[in-house]
Amino acid sequence: MSFTKKIIVSMILGIIIGIAFNLTDLIESALGDYITSALDLISYIFLSSLKLIIVPLIFFSIVCGIISLSDDVSISRLGIKTLLSYTVTTVIAISLGLFFSSFISYEPIQVQDLDNTIDIGNIESDVSIFPNNIFKSLTEGNIIHLLIFAVLIGISASRIKGKIKTFIQYFYDFNDVINELVKIIISFTPLAVFCILAKTFSTQGIETIIPLASYFFTVVFVLLFHFFFTFSILLKLFTTLNPIKFFQNLKDVIIFTFSTSSSSASIPFTLRAANDKYGIDKSISTFTVPLGATINMDGTAIMQGCATFFLASLYGIDLGVSEIITIVITATIASIGTAGIPSAGIIMLTVIFTQIGIPLEGITLLLGVDRLLDMMRTSVNVSGDLCISCVVASSENKINQKVFNS
Ligand code: ASP
Question: How far, in Å, CA of 18 to CA of 7, rounded?
């Protein structure tokens, strides 16, 4: 069985067994406890191993990528192009969320029924983009700081390439070792996908969706629309690549992001797909993929647009042009600031709600369906990173069309 088929089978089995488990009393028994702990442990080890390699993977691959960058690709041009594309797609995503939500009339709710207990004490409010202590940034897992540091080391090393051949060789060797480790960890994906999904569905079930059906399905619809429509248009307009092939190549990545709900944990996986499936040159993907996983969150932006509209209607808050503009701007900034980890997007909603004056307790209402939506929006987030990576790589002539089409 191919690797992709193995992952798909594990995913289906995980969902079915998880739901079956949730419907029986087994989940409450001692055996149920034992099984969920075992599923938890395997998921935890797998996700931790992925997180473990993110820092060295990004660091070595960016430094090596920049050293091997041919003189015709300027790092500042690459940076501007990538940042601009990520911002534009995020703005499109939020606008789609707001646009489609405006067609839905939501049933009013009894606001006083809302639970007041949301814990929003954990919001990261670190706005210092530029690192001043790389060791502190590393222990905090700050990917943007790591990216900046790696780019600076890469630029400095490539300026004196001729003099430091041994140093450069060491970097390439380390890079190979890390890539081998990525290969080993990724070979456990089918097992991990099964455990993560079985655990999620056994504890959440699917009945949580029902009370919030219209919000849930609006978000799902806009996610699908953005995924199929916006990404195809971008590829058609800015590349000569076949969008259908783009979607076919995404299969493994989507299953992975669906299971983990984490753009950051998916970085090693996405990077491999960028190189092996899309034929994107490493000098481009090592920059665009980690950056995208950190700042480009189209799916999150869609959820934030829909959630804002949904709760504003429920609370009877009118959204005029100035509120809409505020939402687009705040949601763009909020989705850039959202960490690529599960549920980060819903926490960042507090930023938008505060701007618009929507009571923060409203967020508790959305929590029931958020786990499932998180799986889907993370898949759109990472697909967006790959789409823009293809666009940027094509514009630099750094994509191997044979690999992309194979
Ligand atoms: N889980 C999402 C991600 O990692 C972030 C979010 O909660 O929207 O991309």
Answer: 16
- Residues framing ligand 1 (Cβ under 6 A): 261-263, 297, 300, 338, 340-345, 374, 377-378, 381
Task: List the chain residues with pLDDT less than 50.
Answer: 109-127
Query: In this predicted model, what pLDDT tens digit does every residue of 272-287 receive, in sequence order?
Result: 999 999 999 988 998 8
Determine the Cα–Cα distance for residues 327 and 312; give it in Å rounded to an integer: 11
Nearest to 373 by CA among 224, 181, 155: 224
Entry pTM: 0.76
Yes or no: say if 137 and 131 are a contact pair by the CB < 8 Å rule: yes
Q: Report the nearest-CA residue for atom 6 of ligand 1.
A: 345
Q: For atom 3 of ligand 1, which residue has the closest CA?
A: 340
Return the ligand 1 atom nearest residue 264 CA.
4
Q: What is the pLDDT of residue 112?
A: 43
Residues 115-118: contacts with CB within 8 Å, 24+ apart? 115/361, 115/364, 116/361, 116/364, 117/364, 118/360, 118/361, 118/363, 118/364, 118/367
Alpha carbon of 369 to ligand 1 centroid (Å)? 14
Angle between helices 344-356 and 298-314 (to 10 degrees): 50
What is the CATH architecture of 3-405?
Orthogonal Bundle (1.10)
Distance 153 CA to ligand 1 centre (A): 29
Convert the pLDDT of each residue in 324-351 to its tens digit: 888 888 888 877 777 788 888 887 888 7
Beta bridge partners of 280: 399
